[in-house]
Amino acid sequence: MAEAIRIKTPLSDEVIKKLKAGDNVLITGLLYTARDAAHKKMVELIEKNEPLPVDISGHLIYYVGPSPARPGQAIGSAGPTTSMRMDPYAPTVLAAGSKGMIGKGEMGPGVAKALQEHSGVYLAAVGGAAALIARSIKKSRVVAWEELGAEAIREMEVEDFPAVVAQDSHGGNIFNQGREQYQID
Amino acid sequence: MREISAEKIAETVAELCVTANYQLGEDVVDALKKGLEKEESPTGRAILEQLLENAKISSEGVFPLCQDTGFSVFFLELGQDARIVGGDLNEAINEGVRNGYTDGYLRKSILADPIKRVNTKDNTPAVIWTDIVPGDQLKITLAPKGGGSENMSEVAMLRPAEGAEGVVRFVVDKVSRAGGNPCPPVVVGVGIGGTFEKVAWLAKKSLLRPIGSRHSDPFYADMEEEILTKVNKLGIGPQGLGGRVTALDVHIEVHPCHIASFPASVNMQCHADRHKSAIL
Fold first, then answer.
1. What is the pLDDT of residues B42-64, one digit of tens each?
2. DSSP code of A57?
Protein backbone atom coordinates (compact mmCIF):
# COMPACT_ATOMS: atom_id res chain seq x y z
CA MET A 1 0.00 0.00 0.00
CA ALA A 2 1.23 3.50 -0.89
CA GLU A 3 2.59 5.62 1.92
CA ALA A 4 0.00 7.62 3.81
CA ILE A 5 -0.33 11.39 3.45
CA ARG A 6 -0.33 13.19 6.82
CA ILE A 7 -3.02 15.87 7.11
CA LYS A 8 -3.81 18.28 9.94
CA THR A 9 -7.16 19.76 10.84
CA PRO A 10 -8.48 22.38 10.24
CA LEU A 11 -8.01 21.69 6.54
CA SER A 12 -7.32 24.28 3.84
CA ASP A 13 -8.75 24.13 0.30
CA GLU A 14 -5.19 23.75 -0.95
CA VAL A 15 -4.65 20.53 1.04
CA ILE A 16 -8.06 19.16 0.12
CA LYS A 17 -7.57 19.74 -3.61
CA LYS A 18 -4.42 17.58 -3.55
CA LEU A 19 -6.28 14.59 -2.06
CA LYS A 20 -7.39 11.99 -4.60
CA ALA A 21 -9.78 9.06 -4.19
CA GLY A 22 -7.76 6.04 -3.05
CA ASP A 23 -5.07 8.01 -1.18
CA ASN A 24 -4.28 6.81 2.33
CA VAL A 25 -4.25 9.54 4.94
CA LEU A 26 -3.36 9.88 8.61
CA ILE A 27 -5.33 12.64 10.32
CA THR A 28 -4.03 14.66 13.26
CA GLY A 29 -5.86 17.46 15.08
CA LEU A 30 -9.44 18.02 16.24
CA LEU A 31 -12.50 16.21 14.90
CA TYR A 32 -16.15 16.86 15.73
CA THR A 33 -18.45 13.87 15.98
CA ALA A 34 -22.08 13.77 14.90
CA ARG A 35 -24.52 11.12 13.70
CA ASP A 36 -28.19 11.12 12.77
CA ALA A 37 -29.71 12.93 15.76
CA ALA A 38 -27.01 15.64 15.99
CA HIS A 39 -27.19 16.26 12.23
CA LYS A 40 -30.92 16.81 12.44
CA LYS A 41 -30.38 19.43 15.15
CA MET A 42 -27.42 21.07 13.36
CA VAL A 43 -29.32 21.45 10.10
CA GLU A 44 -32.33 22.92 11.92
CA LEU A 45 -30.03 25.60 13.43
CA ILE A 46 -28.28 26.32 10.11
CA GLU A 47 -31.62 26.72 8.34
CA LYS A 48 -32.77 29.19 11.02
CA ASN A 49 -29.46 31.09 10.66
CA GLU A 50 -28.62 30.38 14.27
CA PRO A 51 -25.07 29.59 15.45
CA LEU A 52 -23.94 25.98 15.89
CA PRO A 53 -22.72 24.90 19.35
CA VAL A 54 -19.21 24.36 17.89
CA ASP A 55 -17.23 26.12 15.16
CA ILE A 56 -17.01 23.57 12.36
CA SER A 57 -15.16 25.86 9.91
CA GLY A 58 -12.42 23.90 8.18
CA HIS A 59 -13.19 20.81 10.25
CA LEU A 60 -14.13 17.23 9.50
CA ILE A 61 -17.29 15.71 10.98
CA TYR A 62 -16.73 12.16 12.19
CA TYR A 63 -19.83 9.96 11.88
CA VAL A 64 -19.47 7.94 15.08
CA GLY A 65 -21.36 6.94 18.20
CA PRO A 66 -18.62 5.58 20.50
CA SER A 67 -19.07 2.94 23.16
CA PRO A 68 -18.62 4.24 26.74
CA ALA A 69 -15.06 4.99 27.92
CA ARG A 70 -13.68 2.82 30.71
CA PRO A 71 -12.04 4.69 33.60
CA GLY A 72 -8.63 5.95 32.49
CA GLN A 73 -9.42 5.69 28.77
CA ALA A 74 -10.08 8.69 26.47
CA ILE A 75 -12.89 6.85 24.71
CA GLY A 76 -14.42 3.43 24.13
CA SER A 77 -14.47 1.76 20.73
CA ALA A 78 -15.07 4.36 18.05
CA GLY A 79 -15.36 3.18 14.45
CA PRO A 80 -17.36 4.92 11.72
CA THR A 81 -21.09 4.48 11.13
CA THR A 82 -22.81 4.25 7.71
CA SER A 83 -22.46 7.63 5.98
CA MET A 84 -25.39 7.47 3.57
CA ARG A 85 -27.80 8.12 6.43
CA MET A 86 -26.26 11.62 6.56
CA ASP A 87 -26.83 12.21 2.81
CA PRO A 88 -29.85 14.48 3.46
CA TYR A 89 -27.83 16.69 5.85
CA ALA A 90 -24.23 16.68 4.56
CA PRO A 91 -24.59 19.29 1.76
CA THR A 92 -26.00 21.83 4.26
CA VAL A 93 -23.19 21.12 6.75
CA LEU A 94 -20.57 21.53 3.99
CA ALA A 95 -22.16 24.81 2.91
CA ALA A 96 -21.92 25.97 6.54
CA GLY A 97 -18.12 25.65 6.47
CA SER A 98 -17.23 22.05 7.32
CA LYS A 99 -14.54 20.63 5.02
CA GLY A 100 -15.77 17.08 4.92
CA MET A 101 -16.59 13.96 6.85
CA ILE A 102 -15.30 10.58 8.00
CA GLY A 103 -17.59 7.56 7.78
CA LYS A 104 -18.09 4.28 5.94
CA GLY A 105 -19.86 3.27 2.73
CA GLU A 106 -20.64 5.38 -0.32
CA MET A 107 -22.32 8.79 -0.12
CA GLY A 108 -24.88 9.89 -2.72
CA PRO A 109 -24.67 12.19 -5.76
CA GLY A 110 -25.92 15.22 -3.79
CA VAL A 111 -22.95 14.91 -1.44
CA ALA A 112 -20.51 14.31 -4.33
CA LYS A 113 -21.71 17.58 -5.90
CA ALA A 114 -21.43 19.48 -2.60
CA LEU A 115 -17.84 18.18 -2.10
CA GLN A 116 -16.92 19.69 -5.49
CA GLU A 117 -18.77 22.98 -4.87
CA HIS A 118 -17.34 23.59 -1.40
CA SER A 119 -13.93 21.90 -1.80
CA GLY A 120 -14.65 19.11 0.65
CA VAL A 121 -13.46 15.55 1.08
CA TYR A 122 -15.12 12.35 2.28
CA LEU A 123 -12.75 10.00 4.09
CA ALA A 124 -13.56 6.34 4.76
CA ALA A 125 -12.38 4.79 8.01
CA VAL A 126 -12.54 1.02 8.50
CA GLY A 127 -15.97 0.06 9.80
CA GLY A 128 -15.61 -2.44 12.61
CA ALA A 129 -11.95 -1.59 13.31
CA ALA A 130 -13.31 0.34 16.26
CA ALA A 131 -10.88 -0.89 18.93
CA LEU A 132 -7.91 -0.17 16.64
CA ILE A 133 -9.20 3.32 15.77
CA ALA A 134 -9.72 4.11 19.48
CA ARG A 135 -5.92 4.01 19.90
CA SER A 136 -5.52 7.09 17.69
CA ILE A 137 -8.04 9.10 19.76
CA LYS A 138 -6.04 10.84 22.47
CA LYS A 139 -8.76 12.99 24.08
CA SER A 140 -12.51 13.23 23.82
CA ARG A 141 -15.13 15.41 25.49
CA VAL A 142 -18.79 16.08 24.90
CA VAL A 143 -19.21 19.66 23.66
CA ALA A 144 -22.94 19.75 22.83
CA TRP A 145 -26.23 17.94 23.29
CA GLU A 146 -25.10 15.57 26.03
CA GLU A 147 -28.71 14.31 26.27
CA LEU A 148 -28.14 12.48 22.98
CA GLY A 149 -25.80 10.02 24.73
CA ALA A 150 -23.66 8.18 22.15
CA GLU A 151 -25.08 10.61 19.56
CA ALA A 152 -23.88 13.80 21.32
CA ILE A 153 -21.33 16.08 19.62
CA ARG A 154 -17.83 15.29 20.87
CA GLU A 155 -14.59 17.08 20.25
CA MET A 156 -11.87 14.49 19.68
CA GLU A 157 -8.16 15.07 19.57
CA VAL A 158 -6.68 12.50 17.20
CA GLU A 159 -3.18 11.52 16.18
CA ASP A 160 -2.50 9.59 12.97
CA PHE A 161 -6.12 8.52 12.60
CA PRO A 162 -6.08 6.13 9.57
CA ALA A 163 -8.49 6.69 6.66
CA VAL A 164 -8.77 6.41 2.88
CA VAL A 165 -9.90 9.23 0.58
CA ALA A 166 -13.24 7.82 -0.57
CA GLN A 167 -14.83 10.70 -2.50
CA ASP A 168 -12.67 13.70 -3.39
CA SER A 169 -13.24 17.35 -4.37
CA HIS A 170 -12.82 16.53 -8.06
CA GLY A 171 -15.60 13.93 -8.34
CA GLY A 172 -13.29 10.94 -7.78
CA ASN A 173 -14.96 7.98 -6.04
CA ILE A 174 -12.99 4.95 -4.78
CA PHE A 175 -16.15 2.83 -4.41
CA ASN A 176 -16.70 3.00 -8.19
CA GLN A 177 -13.02 2.90 -9.15
CA GLY A 178 -12.18 0.03 -6.81
CA ARG A 179 -15.14 -2.05 -7.90
CA GLU A 180 -14.41 -1.54 -11.61
CA GLN A 181 -10.82 -2.62 -11.04
CA TYR A 182 -11.65 -5.84 -9.20
CA GLN A 183 -14.95 -7.05 -10.64
CA ILE A 184 -14.91 -10.22 -12.72
CA ASP A 185 -17.55 -10.49 -15.48
CA MET B 1 -39.15 -31.17 36.19
CA ARG B 2 -35.61 -29.79 36.34
CA GLU B 3 -35.48 -26.30 37.80
CA ILE B 4 -33.44 -23.45 36.31
CA SER B 5 -33.30 -20.21 38.27
CA ALA B 6 -34.07 -16.86 36.67
CA GLU B 7 -31.11 -15.41 38.55
CA LYS B 8 -28.73 -17.91 36.94
CA ILE B 9 -30.19 -17.05 33.52
CA ALA B 10 -29.61 -13.31 34.08
CA GLU B 11 -26.00 -13.95 35.21
CA THR B 12 -25.30 -16.13 32.18
CA VAL B 13 -26.79 -13.59 29.78
CA ALA B 14 -24.68 -10.77 31.25
CA GLU B 15 -21.53 -12.88 30.65
CA LEU B 16 -22.61 -13.70 27.08
CA CYS B 17 -23.11 -9.98 26.33
CA VAL B 18 -19.50 -9.29 27.31
CA THR B 19 -17.81 -12.30 25.66
CA ALA B 20 -19.78 -11.90 22.41
CA ASN B 21 -18.73 -8.26 22.10
CA TYR B 22 -15.05 -8.69 23.00
CA GLN B 23 -14.07 -12.16 21.72
CA LEU B 24 -14.40 -12.75 17.99
CA GLY B 25 -15.08 -16.42 17.13
CA GLU B 26 -12.17 -18.55 15.88
CA ASP B 27 -14.13 -19.33 12.70
CA VAL B 28 -14.29 -15.62 11.85
CA VAL B 29 -10.60 -15.04 12.63
CA ASP B 30 -9.68 -18.01 10.40
CA ALA B 31 -11.93 -16.72 7.61
CA LEU B 32 -10.30 -13.27 7.76
CA LYS B 33 -6.84 -14.92 7.57
CA LYS B 34 -7.92 -16.98 4.54
CA GLY B 35 -9.34 -13.79 3.03
CA LEU B 36 -5.95 -12.15 3.42
CA GLU B 37 -4.42 -14.94 1.30
CA LYS B 38 -6.99 -14.39 -1.46
CA GLU B 39 -7.21 -10.60 -1.47
CA GLU B 40 -5.38 -8.90 -4.35
CA SER B 41 -6.19 -5.27 -3.56
CA PRO B 42 -3.49 -3.60 -1.41
CA THR B 43 -6.15 -1.49 0.34
CA GLY B 44 -8.26 -4.60 0.86
CA ARG B 45 -5.31 -6.47 2.36
CA ALA B 46 -4.51 -3.55 4.67
CA ILE B 47 -8.14 -3.54 5.88
CA LEU B 48 -8.15 -7.30 6.57
CA GLU B 49 -4.91 -6.91 8.53
CA GLN B 50 -6.49 -4.09 10.54
CA LEU B 51 -9.52 -6.28 11.32
CA LEU B 52 -7.29 -9.07 12.61
CA GLU B 53 -5.35 -6.58 14.74
CA ASN B 54 -8.68 -5.14 15.94
CA ALA B 55 -9.84 -8.60 17.09
CA LYS B 56 -6.58 -9.02 19.01
CA ILE B 57 -6.93 -5.63 20.76
CA SER B 58 -10.55 -6.35 21.59
CA SER B 59 -9.77 -9.76 23.09
CA GLU B 60 -7.77 -7.97 25.83
CA GLY B 61 -11.16 -6.87 27.18
CA VAL B 62 -10.90 -3.07 27.20
CA PHE B 63 -12.34 -2.06 23.82
CA PRO B 64 -15.27 -3.96 22.28
CA LEU B 65 -14.83 -5.26 18.70
CA CYS B 66 -17.11 -2.55 17.33
CA GLN B 67 -18.64 0.56 18.89
CA ASP B 68 -21.98 -0.74 17.62
CA THR B 69 -22.48 -3.45 20.20
CA GLY B 70 -25.79 -4.26 18.61
CA PHE B 71 -29.37 -5.18 19.24
CA SER B 72 -29.30 -8.16 21.64
CA VAL B 73 -30.97 -10.94 19.66
CA PHE B 74 -31.52 -14.21 21.55
CA PHE B 75 -32.32 -17.69 20.31
CA LEU B 76 -33.48 -19.84 23.22
CA GLU B 77 -33.97 -23.59 23.13
CA LEU B 78 -35.98 -24.41 26.22
CA GLY B 79 -36.35 -28.08 27.12
CA GLN B 80 -39.98 -28.99 27.78
CA ASP B 81 -38.96 -30.80 30.98
CA ALA B 82 -37.29 -27.69 32.45
CA ARG B 83 -39.03 -25.17 34.68
CA ILE B 84 -37.90 -21.56 35.21
CA VAL B 85 -38.11 -20.61 38.90
CA GLY B 86 -37.68 -17.36 40.79
CA GLY B 87 -38.77 -15.01 38.05
CA ASP B 88 -39.96 -14.38 34.52
CA LEU B 89 -37.80 -15.83 31.70
CA ASN B 90 -37.97 -12.78 29.42
CA GLU B 91 -37.34 -10.38 32.30
CA ALA B 92 -34.32 -12.48 33.35
CA ILE B 93 -32.89 -12.13 29.83
CA ASN B 94 -33.46 -8.36 29.85
CA GLU B 95 -31.94 -8.08 33.32
CA GLY B 96 -28.85 -9.87 31.99
CA VAL B 97 -28.63 -7.49 29.01
CA ARG B 98 -29.03 -4.47 31.29
CA ASN B 99 -26.18 -5.64 33.54
CA GLY B 100 -23.93 -6.96 30.77
CA TYR B 101 -24.15 -3.78 28.70
CA THR B 102 -23.53 -1.53 31.71
CA ASP B 103 -20.73 -3.51 33.39
CA GLY B 104 -19.11 -4.35 30.03
CA TYR B 105 -18.98 -0.69 28.86
CA LEU B 106 -21.05 -1.57 25.80
CA ARG B 107 -23.03 0.98 23.81
CA LYS B 108 -26.75 1.29 24.47
CA SER B 109 -28.32 1.51 21.02
CA ILE B 110 -32.00 0.73 21.59
CA LEU B 111 -34.78 3.31 21.20
CA ALA B 112 -38.05 2.81 23.09
CA ASP B 113 -40.04 3.89 20.03
CA PRO B 114 -38.98 3.91 16.36
CA ILE B 115 -40.60 7.29 15.61
CA LYS B 116 -40.23 9.14 18.92
CA ARG B 117 -36.64 7.85 19.10
CA VAL B 118 -35.81 8.06 22.81
CA ASN B 119 -33.01 5.77 24.03
CA THR B 120 -33.90 3.22 26.75
CA LYS B 121 -30.32 3.69 28.05
CA ASP B 122 -29.74 0.03 28.96
CA ASN B 123 -29.95 -1.70 25.56
CA THR B 124 -33.22 -3.41 26.48
CA PRO B 125 -35.59 -4.79 25.43
CA ALA B 126 -33.87 -7.70 23.71
CA VAL B 127 -35.37 -9.57 20.76
CA ILE B 128 -36.07 -13.08 22.08
CA TRP B 129 -36.96 -16.13 19.99
CA THR B 130 -37.89 -19.19 22.04
CA ASP B 131 -38.17 -22.75 20.74
CA ILE B 132 -39.58 -25.45 23.01
CA VAL B 133 -37.50 -28.58 22.47
CA PRO B 134 -37.23 -32.06 24.07
CA GLY B 135 -35.04 -32.34 27.19
CA ASP B 136 -34.60 -30.44 30.44
CA GLN B 137 -31.93 -27.88 29.57
CA LEU B 138 -31.95 -24.26 28.41
CA LYS B 139 -29.61 -23.28 25.57
CA ILE B 140 -29.11 -19.53 25.28
CA THR B 141 -27.54 -18.08 22.14
CA LEU B 142 -26.88 -14.36 21.88
CA ALA B 143 -26.14 -12.69 18.54
CA PRO B 144 -25.61 -8.93 19.03
CA LYS B 145 -26.68 -7.42 15.68
CA GLY B 146 -25.21 -4.19 14.35
CA GLY B 147 -27.46 -1.64 12.65
CA GLY B 148 -25.30 -1.03 9.56
CA SER B 149 -25.56 -4.57 8.23
CA GLU B 150 -29.13 -5.09 9.45
CA ASN B 151 -30.21 -2.07 7.36
CA MET B 152 -28.93 -3.79 4.20
CA SER B 153 -31.28 -6.78 4.63
CA GLU B 154 -34.43 -7.59 2.63
CA VAL B 155 -37.39 -9.94 2.20
CA ALA B 156 -38.75 -10.72 -1.28
CA MET B 157 -41.91 -12.63 -2.17
CA LEU B 158 -40.61 -14.14 -5.42
CA ARG B 159 -42.78 -15.94 -7.97
CA PRO B 160 -42.47 -19.75 -7.84
CA ALA B 161 -41.55 -19.75 -11.56
CA GLU B 162 -38.30 -17.94 -10.72
CA GLY B 163 -36.86 -21.07 -9.11
CA ALA B 164 -33.31 -21.46 -7.80
CA GLU B 165 -31.99 -18.98 -10.35
CA GLY B 166 -34.39 -16.35 -9.04
CA VAL B 167 -33.08 -16.74 -5.49
CA VAL B 168 -29.44 -16.57 -6.60
CA ARG B 169 -30.18 -13.44 -8.67
CA PHE B 170 -32.04 -11.77 -5.76
CA VAL B 171 -29.24 -12.47 -3.25
CA VAL B 172 -26.34 -11.43 -5.51
CA ASP B 173 -28.21 -8.27 -6.54
CA LYS B 174 -28.88 -7.42 -2.89
CA VAL B 175 -25.19 -7.77 -1.96
CA SER B 176 -24.26 -5.71 -5.03
CA ARG B 177 -26.61 -2.86 -4.11
CA ALA B 178 -25.47 -2.91 -0.47
CA GLY B 179 -21.87 -2.17 -1.59
CA GLY B 180 -19.64 -1.05 1.27
CA ASN B 181 -22.50 -0.20 3.65
CA PRO B 182 -22.84 -3.49 5.59
CA CYS B 183 -19.08 -3.53 6.44
CA PRO B 184 -17.77 -6.17 4.07
CA PRO B 185 -16.37 -8.77 4.12
CA VAL B 186 -19.85 -9.92 5.10
CA VAL B 187 -21.54 -13.18 5.94
CA VAL B 188 -24.69 -13.50 3.84
CA GLY B 189 -27.64 -15.18 5.58
CA VAL B 190 -30.31 -16.46 3.20
CA GLY B 191 -33.78 -17.74 3.99
CA ILE B 192 -35.90 -19.64 1.46
CA GLY B 193 -39.52 -20.73 1.97
CA GLY B 194 -41.92 -20.53 4.91
CA THR B 195 -44.05 -17.43 5.27
CA PHE B 196 -43.29 -13.69 5.13
CA GLU B 197 -42.06 -13.55 8.75
CA LYS B 198 -40.57 -17.05 8.85
CA VAL B 199 -38.26 -16.41 5.91
CA ALA B 200 -36.66 -13.39 7.61
CA TRP B 201 -36.14 -15.46 10.75
CA LEU B 202 -34.49 -18.25 8.73
CA ALA B 203 -31.91 -15.86 7.29
CA LYS B 204 -31.06 -14.58 10.75
CA LYS B 205 -30.88 -18.11 12.18
CA SER B 206 -28.51 -19.19 9.37
CA LEU B 207 -25.98 -16.61 10.59
CA LEU B 208 -25.45 -18.67 13.75
CA ARG B 209 -23.77 -21.43 11.74
CA PRO B 210 -19.95 -21.42 11.85
CA ILE B 211 -18.23 -19.89 8.83
CA GLY B 212 -17.19 -22.66 6.46
CA SER B 213 -20.06 -25.00 7.39
CA ARG B 214 -22.34 -26.19 4.57
CA HIS B 215 -26.06 -26.99 4.42
CA SER B 216 -26.75 -30.70 5.04
CA ASP B 217 -28.65 -30.99 1.73
CA PRO B 218 -26.04 -31.10 -1.11
CA PHE B 219 -28.40 -29.09 -3.36
CA TYR B 220 -28.37 -26.14 -0.96
CA ALA B 221 -24.68 -26.65 -0.13
CA ASP B 222 -23.95 -26.18 -3.86
CA MET B 223 -26.20 -23.11 -3.94
CA GLU B 224 -24.24 -21.60 -1.02
CA GLU B 225 -20.99 -22.13 -2.97
CA GLU B 226 -22.50 -20.71 -6.16
CA ILE B 227 -23.70 -17.53 -4.46
CA LEU B 228 -20.37 -17.11 -2.62
CA THR B 229 -18.43 -17.36 -5.89
CA LYS B 230 -20.73 -14.87 -7.64
CA VAL B 231 -20.66 -12.39 -4.75
CA ASN B 232 -16.87 -12.47 -4.65
CA LYS B 233 -16.76 -11.57 -8.37
CA LEU B 234 -18.59 -8.28 -7.72
CA GLY B 235 -15.34 -6.44 -6.87
CA ILE B 236 -16.83 -4.70 -3.80
CA GLY B 237 -14.05 -5.94 -1.51
CA PRO B 238 -13.30 -5.07 2.12
CA GLN B 239 -15.27 -1.95 3.15
CA GLY B 240 -16.44 -1.52 -0.47
CA LEU B 241 -13.11 0.05 -1.52
CA GLY B 242 -12.53 -2.63 -4.19
CA GLY B 243 -11.23 -6.17 -3.92
CA ARG B 244 -11.88 -9.89 -4.18
CA VAL B 245 -13.10 -10.64 -0.66
CA THR B 246 -16.64 -9.29 -0.42
CA ALA B 247 -18.14 -12.19 1.54
CA LEU B 248 -16.58 -14.66 3.98
CA ASP B 249 -19.45 -17.10 3.54
CA VAL B 250 -23.07 -17.66 2.50
CA HIS B 251 -25.49 -19.68 4.65
CA ILE B 252 -28.91 -20.85 3.50
CA GLU B 253 -31.77 -22.13 5.68
CA VAL B 254 -34.91 -23.60 4.13
CA HIS B 255 -38.52 -24.20 5.28
CA PRO B 256 -41.56 -25.80 3.55
CA CYS B 257 -43.81 -23.25 1.83
CA HIS B 258 -47.31 -22.64 0.41
CA ILE B 259 -48.15 -23.75 -3.17
CA ALA B 260 -48.63 -20.09 -4.19
CA SER B 261 -45.51 -18.72 -2.50
CA PHE B 262 -41.75 -18.50 -2.90
CA PRO B 263 -40.39 -16.24 -0.14
CA ALA B 264 -36.68 -15.43 -0.01
CA SER B 265 -34.68 -13.22 2.31
CA VAL B 266 -31.20 -11.84 2.88
CA ASN B 267 -29.91 -10.93 6.33
CA MET B 268 -26.55 -9.27 5.99
CA GLN B 269 -23.95 -9.77 8.72
CA CYS B 270 -20.86 -7.56 8.98
CA HIS B 271 -17.40 -9.09 9.51
CA ALA B 272 -17.93 -8.69 13.29
CA ASP B 273 -19.92 -11.94 13.13
CA ARG B 274 -20.62 -12.19 16.85
CA HIS B 275 -22.51 -14.96 18.59
CA LYS B 276 -22.00 -16.93 21.78
CA SER B 277 -23.96 -19.74 23.44
CA ALA B 278 -24.34 -21.26 26.90
CA ILE B 279 -26.26 -24.28 28.15
CA LEU B 280 -27.92 -24.33 31.59
1. 999 999 999 999 999 999 999 99
2. T
